[in-house]
Amino acid sequence: MTRIITAEIFPQCSFLSNNLKPTSQSQKHNFVVRCSSNEQNKVKTRNLQSVKVSTHNRPAHVQSNDMKVLNWSCKVGKYDETLYLLECKMKSGYKPDVILCTKLIKGFYNSKNSDKAEKVMQILEQFGEPDVFAYNALISGFCKMNKIEAADKVLNRMKSRGFHPDAVTYNILIGSLCDRGKLGLALKLLDQLKEENNCNPTVITYTILIEATILEGGIHEAMKLLDEMLSRGLQPDMYTYNAIIRGMCREKMMDQAYEFVRSLPSKGCRPDVISYNILLSALLHKGKWSDGEKLVNEMFSAGCEPNVVTYSILMSALCRDGKLDEAINLLKIMMDKGLTPDTFTYDPLISAFCKGGRLDLAIKFLDYMISNGCLPDIVNYNTILSTMCKKGKADEAMEVFEKLGEIGCPPDVSTYNTLMSALWNNGGRARALRMVSEMIEKGIDPDEITYNSLISCLCRDGMVDEALDLFWRYGGSWFSTYCYHL
Prior knowledge:
The chain is an all-alpha fold. It is built from 26 helices and no strands. The protein has helices spanning 2-9, 60-75, 79-90, 98-110, 114-127, 132-144, 148-160, 167-179, 183-195, 203-216, 219-231, 238-250, 254-263, 273-285, 289-301, 308-320, 324-336, 343-355, 359-371, 378-390, 394-403, 413-425, 429-441, 448-460, 464-473, 479-485. Belongs to the PPR family. P subfamily.
């Protein structure tokens, strides 16, 4: 397969080593996030007293100006101010605009304020005319905040007021239930949807359920849903079929997945690059380079051009097999073809350098990545930080860690876990626990690795009672206890 990639399918290209020198700009890693001057602050809002004047017999252009103020305030994200203005206008007999209120509901949910979103809907129900779009926005917001019961109450309220939920309403609820592992409830909601007179399941409805069923019930149960979907006269799209392909590969049904891809034209769909990428990734993960070669050739024959993900899959497999030079060569080929690598593309290369003990090259490659316009994500940095810590360079790792927020790449739980263990192992027990405190203050929840690392560190230092206490509490108010013991 490697021979095909580098010799037959693609033109010969020189090795990339000469191009890996970072530019002078990339060596500094200085990224400053600047906000453009807020010209909107220069706009003078209307005197709030003027909103209280009665709208009766007011000129049309005055009422129009009021609407402009409300729309502008909502558009620039001043949701509290918009709600205040809206409440002021209610006192003068203003009928709230449903489109504005829907935007305001979405805005409050984006700022995680469900109480005010609900308040906007109450204003709309009392003084205006809500529609299904407004209710869908409210239901969607509750679902995103994991308030499923509240979303269900809105659905019932919506029905009681004579509004018929549409497929979007049900898809929001079904999708939310599936995301939270409640497939049984989602399937009951599907049954309820099928009983509706004015609404029917859509391709999206079944695709959501098929994806969830693959994870919880397996591919065979998912195929039953596909058959039901077809029996209702719904034509699956490539998103649906790709979910099936992904499910087959997940259960190591490679032959069936291969045949399924080949059968798609007879089903009225042509495999797309995502279909081939799913299958290629599964084949190469199992080391089946010859089958991968055949698939790539079929892909070209079908007129399906590889994309960034295709190249990233190939490069990841080459790195996994220790063929780093060929992976770098493939990166050069990819860029010569006008494709722009992303963080997913670079990560296996950085990981390969780190695993090979070449931290210096990994850092240079990170510079090269930045100089080519691709800002590293936290996964890239975590790889570098982990290697620094393993090499006993915890202080250098901390210097990088402290700059992550400045460059717009905030640390995640894995970052904290890595640094916490390194600091503890280097005698910085109190500093390690301060990091855990900082992590919690920033709203990053500790995971199993966090707890296991702390328990392990405590045991190694002879603090077995504290470790047992932490083990039994597992997420209680343990932090203050261990700060006290230190």
